[in-house]
Amino acid sequence: MSFLRPETGASQHATLPQPAPLDRSAFLPPVHAYRRARGFSAVYRGTRSALRALRANALRSLLTSLGIIIGVGAVIMMISISEGNAAAINQRLSALNPTQLTIFPGSARGTGGVSSGLGSAQSLTLDDANAIAQLSHVTAVSPLINAQGQLVAGDQNWSTSVVGVAPPYQQIGGWQLQEGSFISQDDEDSGHTVAVLGQTVVDNLFGPGANPVGQSVRINGVPFTVIGVLAPKGTTGGRNADDVVYVPYTTARQRLSGGRSLGQIVLTADSTSDVGLVQNEVEQLLEQRHNISNPQLDDFQIANQLQVLQSVQGTNQALTILLVSVASVSLVVGGIGIMNIMLVSVTERTREIGIRIAIGARPRDVMTQFLIEALVLSILGGLIGIVLGPIGAWVLTHFTSTPFVLDPLSVLLAFGVSALVGVVFGFYPAQRAARLDPIVALRTE
After folding, report:
1. What share of the chain is helix, strand, coil (3-state, %, to 5)?
2. In Å, how far are 86, 160, 308, 309, 318 from 315, measured between CA atoms?
3. Nearest CA among 424, 420, 417 for reference residue 79
4. What are the backbone dihedrals phi and psi of residue 196, each rounded to the nearest 5 degrees, phi first?
């Protein structure tokens, strides 16, 4: 008997089945793939992973992005409404001539503590207007006399403003004629009883679409011949610019007013850049003519329409900034919501993060993935806001009868800010995930 083992020609271990190598990707395909990805591939895989995570919690993702949706939509809507209002204001102010200066008699400051009030004093004369016309950079000057007139044509009557002007006023006021002609120098010199009617006056005295040129109209009992009809201008600053009648200045002074003082002097400069220079020269000239040594005691006031335009535009810009600032608060609130949910996500996925770091993912890879998830949340919210914002703006402008204006730059700006919010508020949760200790993370249940 042999106590020796029979020779088999091969070891017993060689006959045992060998275990198959562990394939981690079988249960962690996304982690394995992400660990090896770099550059653009890492961003692509991170985006796919983020979309899968968002799809798995669709309702929570929608509620998380709600702040960004409201913020982006509100910013776009506020900018659109503000620009629509600006367009409407500019349309109404388009009748204003930015090179025009208007001189009013009297001073709101007054003397001795008593204010005479603009337009109530009798400090402007026709000689003042003639002297102003001699200044350089002045292209047109017209005296104005204002009177209230009762107009009668046939069996119709209409009460309106009657203004005595010189021929250059057509250029100063930017008036276009629909029918006939404006007041000529011969009408002014001879004191002809002729009148140029605004469209509202024509509609009320002769009917819409009528051509009253050559017909007679009585103004405060004085017969005038209609020589022209002004093209419509519409309402400017709450005032109907078409509800007016223009007559020669000399005729108004002799037949309607009776006084020698002027209600206003209007003039235009040759360019907007010279308006300030002309205003200073007019002030000095009138102070010299009225023997005024202290500018605080001026018996006239000058209104600069360029300053009015700039003031209105500045006010509108300030209102736009205010509205956009208020709407931007929603973006900040949305960013806080994203940060909160991302912190919850890091807590829920602590073990997954530990496994990824244990099999080779670097902390910056984990950080990139969570940043991408936060960015995807904010971008999706921004895209929905881009759709809803213009719709809301269109609805509001439809009910307020203001122009609908959508600036593509405002859309890009709102979208860019929403993406920035996602990165800023997603940074802390991503950093917290990247700094997890893999051993502690793997022990987490």
Report:
1. 55, 15, 25
2. 10, 32, 11, 10, 5
3. 417
4. -115, 125
Residue spans of beta strands (DSSP E) within 20-89: none
Q: What is the pLDDT of residue 328?
A: 79
Helix, strand or coil for residue 119?
coil
Interval 260-312: pLDDT, tens: 678 899 999 988 888 889 999 999 999 999 888 888 888 888 888 777 777 77
Categorize the per-residue pLDDT at 197 as very low, low, confident or very high, splitting at 50, 70 and 90.
Answer: very high
Residue 390, both tokens? 């213009």
Closest CA to 332 of 427, 418, 429: 418
Residues in contact with 240: Cβ distance below 8 Å, sequence separation at least 6, in sequence order: 200, 234
Q: What is the pLDDT of residue 265?
A: 92
pLDDT confidence of residue 338: 87
Tokens 């439809």 sit on residue: 398
Give backbone dihedrals phi and psi of 304, rounded to 5 degrees, phi first.
-105, 115
Residue 323: which residues within 8 A CB-CB, separation 6 or more? 78, 79, 81, 82
DSSP 111: B
Provide the 10 A C-beta neighbour count for residue 391.
12
pLDDT value of residue 39 = 62
In DSSP terms, 229 is beta-bridged to 179, 197
In whole angstroms, what is the distance from residue 76 CA to residue 410 CA?
6
C-alpha to C-alpha distance for 187 and 246, rounded to whole angstroms: 12
As a whole number of angstroms, the distance between CA 81 and CA 403 comes to 8
pLDDT at residue number 200? 92
